[in-house]
Amino acid sequence: MEQKMSWAVSDAVDYKGFSADRSKTGGWVPAALILGIEICERLSTMGIAVNLVTYLGGTMHLPSSTSANIVTDFMGTSFLLCMLGGFLADSFLGRYRTIAIFALIQTLGTAMLAISTKLSRLRPPPCRPNRPCEQADGLQMGILYLALYLVALGTGGLKSSVSGFGTDQFDDKDQKEKAQMAYFFNRFFLFISVGTLTAVTVLVYVQDEVSRSVAYGACSVAMFIASLMFLSGTRRYRYKMCLGSPIVQIMQVASASIKKRGLEVPYDVGCLYEDVPEGSRIRHTDQFRCLDKAAVVAEGDFVKGGHNSAPNPWKLCSVTRVEEVKMMISLLPVWAMTIIFWTTYAQMITFSVEQASTMERSIGSFQIPAGSVTVFFVVAIMITLAVYDRFIMPLWKKWKGKPGFSNLQRIAIGLVLSTLGMLAAAITERKRLSVAASVGRATATLPVSVFLLIPQFFLVGSGEAFIYTGQLDFFITQSPKGMKTMSTGLFLTTLSLGFFVSSFLVSIVKKATSTGAGQGWLADNINYGRLDCFYGLLAVLSLVNFVAYLACVAWYKPEFHKPTLQMEKIGNGSSMEEKV
């Protein structure tokens, strides 16, 4: 019996609902099937996003600012829907069903996109000489929007669950499998990079040189095959039970504290309600004391049932549950200060691609597709991660005794690099506009090399390598154990809001700078605009944001939610403190 139990994973079940057998479930084979879903998701989403602006402008005949906003709204919605996917996975569906359902939705979305780009009636007629181009009508844009947002919905559901379900296949209580889990995270990020790299090279080339419908159709087929492979591993997966959404816990604490807003918090915090076992408790803190009222015991807080009475969670919450909510609130200032980075990131797949479309992109007889210039961005990420892992971390460990920069330091480096990236982008655009003025702004391809865009791509790409890993580390390690999934979703919302802020900023700048004599900074043809001023504005906003970030870091105290353990040495009566 003991030998049989040793093969069981304590907190996981198999597809029948029995305790998962370690020898028959989990491990690298099912994890690899899950990674196949991730690479196809990245291939589809990024393959659409990085080259969509050229389709909207060149085929659907939309203004450049409108095209940029459609792309950023699409990406923003994709990441915002991660919160919905996480909520459904935690509360109702579980990660397995969530992945299966949303993979099918993304398959349908890419298939519809392939059809919409294939049928001539779903796009306006080509431009003709001496006649204004006809913009896409409401029906054509409606079909396109439906396809795009089906893809966005699929992305939101998949990204919220793929990484978590992958780690479910490894038991963190087993040392061997715990090491494999760390290796899985490395492979997960590698698959994201491989999917993105394939999207911005092979897929963009097929879109421009063969057919968009073929490229999008290939994405749909790839996701369908990946879904079948994913379903084939049903018997091999380990499943974790749904424990309920942390959003409900936050609402309960907020509701209880509001209902008791007229009560006084006792001077002795030991009088506050606590029902969590000693070893799992979080010590009381003084920040956000208004929430402590949720743990004040009052008449009517307990619901009687049989021989026992239990607290009504909407009226009375334990100190630990209140402190978990406090921990999440304390993350919000840092969360807010990272949104502007993703606003600058949005320019790399919108206006920077438009810049590339007007520049010389030939290498011999080969013409680089405009959307493929984002390969510089992806390569910058991979180079930065390799240099950091192989050189910076060992040197930092020798000098400071720490394995690399802290998560807050990495976020700071990312913010600085993105600020420099926008400054470089402004300088490059000023050079491109000077060439356009000298040869004629109506010139389709300016005699200026697309490789001038490398500095802005490299700086923002390197910034993403630091800020993405820093944010992920920060939100996972500084959040309560029961809210890890939600904190990951919170991190992904910074990407979403960054894209939405970009759309909002573009609309404001477009309206504020347009005059009767011209179209302002963001003209329909960027050769007639002042995109350099827009990049300069983003550089200034990024600098102000960085200063605000430093203030938030000074306020934030990681020790704020770290309990202190007293460990006494037997024999000499001395003691030592260890923060955990």
UniProtKB/TrEMBL annotation:
Task: Using the UniProt record, give the first listed, main subcellular location.
Answer: membrane
Q: How does it sit in the membrane?
A: Multi-pass membrane protein
Gene Ontology cellular-component annotations:
membrane
For this protein, the record's Pfam families field holds: PTR2 (PF00854)
Source domain of life is Eukaryota
Q: Give the protein name, as stated in the record.
A: Protein NRT1/ PTR FAMILY 6.2
- What's a GO biological-process term for it? oligopeptide transport
Q: Where in the cell is it found?
A: Membrane
Species lineage, top-down?
Eukaryota, Viridiplantae, Streptophyta, Embryophyta, Tracheophyta
Keywords in alphabetical order, please. Membrane, Transmembrane, Transmembrane helix
**Single GO MF annotation:** transmembrane transporter activity
The entry assigns this protein to a family as follows: Belongs to the major facilitator superfamily. Proton-dependent oligopeptide transporter (POT/PTR) (TC 2.A.17) family.
Source organism of the structure: Rhodamnia argentea
Chain ranges passing through the membrane? 70-89, 95-115, 188-207, 213-231, 328-348, 368-388, 408-428, 448-468, 489-509, 534-556
